[in-house]
């Protein structure tokens, strides 16, 4: 079974509730209809019910009425949400009037649903900028315990099955943090390993990448990777992780054995952690274009609950896949 099929099957078994704040956006409605039809998740659409139903009928969608449709301006828990948001943001001076205005925004309402336990995850961004999607997530859901940084991972599926696990690897961070500190890089490694478990069903073997392998070069950038490795081991002592490793030493067994003969990770890594966003973003796009790899993501990691951001150029299939991925993440969240 292909990875995306497995992700979808896992989502069906998980039975999670995913909120889609962009309830009138055409691709989102089509994706919601497919997700409901195939049983990927329970769907909440935010917006005016009459308008959403009318749009679904115009598009000849058959399952939208099975979604829970919530109007941020009038839903039954609005007062409860306002009270809780004021409590959460009282240190920032948020007034009740300001909270009421914020919760008219479906992006804030959707995240508040997750905070209040009425939804397990969110997918948005088909018609909103990344900053607008993430702002309420940072303010309300915040980061996972022990984590202070949000990052973006790609599930890379390459044709050559000798790499990673049957051609499946995790690349991070490729989307969010331009120049992480050593502590942040360690957190990215921990979160990427969790993404490997929750979504790709991998036993993570993490390589901390550098232009140096096991001391072959001396530089402050190498020192940052080594410090990150130390911190990651302290955070999760049982994690299979090593570095610093050059890319070929991380994924090619012969090279790994030659350059890092005492490493259990060298040559066998399935999670690659890049030292900064320049490298990660360039690397995933080159592998995608030159090697014909499928790049699934970015999957946001590090938040206390799964909230994922779409590209505004996304397809219906992209949204459906991200609904399934978000459901998988929600199933892996420790309550």
Shape: globular
Q: What does the largest sheet look like?
A: 6 strands, mixed
Physical arrangement of strands within the biggest beta sheet: 8-7-9-6-5-10
CATH top level class name of the largest domain: Alpha Beta
Low-confidence spans: none
Straight-line N-to-C gap: 30 Å
What does this structure look like?
This protein has helices spanning 3-14, 26-38, 49-58, 78-88, 96-102, 106-115, 130-141, 182-198, 220-235, 247-251, 253-259, 277-290, 316-332, and strands at 17-20, 42-46, 68-70, 121-124, 151-157, 168-172, 205-209, 240-245, 271-273, 294-301, 307-309. It folds into 2 domains: 3-142 and 305-332, Rossmann fold, CATH 3.40.50.10950; 151-296, Isocitrate/Isopropylmalate dehydrogenase-like (Rossmann fold, 3-Layer(aba) Sandwich). The model has no long low-confidence stretch (mean pLDDT 95). The radius of gyration is 21 Å and the shape is globular. The chain has 13 helices and 11 strands. Helix 3 links the parallel strand 2 and strand 3. It starts with a helix and ends with a helix. The chain has 335 residues and is of the alpha/beta class.
Structural topology:
Elements: H1 3-14, E1 17-20, H2 26-38, E2 42-46, H3 49-58, E3 68-70, H4 78-88, H5 96-102, H6 106-115, E4 121-124, H7 130-141, E5 151-157, E6 168-172, H8 182-198, E7 205-209, H9 220-235, E8 240-245, H10 247-251, H11 253-259, E9 271-273, H12 277-290, E10 294-301, E11 307-309, H13 316-332
Parallel strand pairs: 1-2, 1-4, 2-3, 4-11, 6-9, 7-8, 7-9
Antiparallel strand pairs: 5-6, 5-10
Helix pairs in contact: 1-13, 2-13, 6-7, 8-9, 8-13
């Amino acid at each position: 079974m292909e990875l995306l099929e497995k992700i979808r099957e896992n989502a069906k078994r998980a039975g999670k509730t995913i909120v889609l704040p962009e309830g009138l956006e055409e691709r989102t409605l089509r994706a919601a209809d497919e997700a409901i039809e195939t049983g990927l998740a329970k769907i909440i659409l935010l917006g005016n019910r009459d308008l959403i139903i009318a749009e679904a009928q115009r598009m000849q969608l058959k399952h939208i009425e099975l979604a829970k449709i919530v109007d941020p301006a009038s839903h039954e828990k609005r007062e409860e949400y306002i009270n809780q948001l004021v409590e959460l943001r009282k240190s920032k001076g948020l007034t009740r009037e300001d909270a009421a205005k914020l919760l008219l925004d479906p992006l804030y309402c959707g995240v508040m649903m997750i905070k209040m336990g009425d939804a397990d995850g969110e997918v948005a961004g088909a018609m909103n900028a990344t900053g607008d999607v993430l702002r309420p997530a940072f303010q309300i859901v915040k980061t996972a315990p022990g984590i202070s940084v949000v990052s973006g991972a790609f599930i890379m599926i390459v044709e050559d099955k000798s790499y990673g696990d049957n051609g499946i690897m995790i690349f991070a961070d490729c989307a969010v943090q331009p120049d992480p500190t050593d502590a942040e890089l360690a957190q990215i490694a921990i979160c990427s390993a969790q993404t490997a478990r929750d979504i790709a069903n991998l036993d993570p073997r993490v390589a901390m990448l550098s232009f140096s392998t096991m001391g072959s070069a001396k530089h402050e950038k190498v020192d940052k990777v080594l410090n990150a490795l130390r911190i990651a081991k302290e955070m999760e002592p049982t994690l299979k992780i090593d570095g610093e490793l050059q890319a070929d030493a991380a994924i090619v067994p012969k090279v790994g054995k030659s350059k890092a003969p005492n490493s259990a990770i060298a040559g066998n890594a399935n999670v690659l952690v890049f030292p900064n966003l320049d490298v990660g973003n360039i690397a995933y796009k080159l592998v995608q274009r030159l090697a014909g790899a499928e790049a699934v993501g970015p999957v946001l990691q590090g938040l206390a609950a799964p909230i994922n951001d779409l590209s505004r150029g996304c397809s219906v299939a992209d949204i459906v896949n991200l609904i399934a991925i978000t459901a998988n993440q929600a199933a892996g969240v420790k309550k």
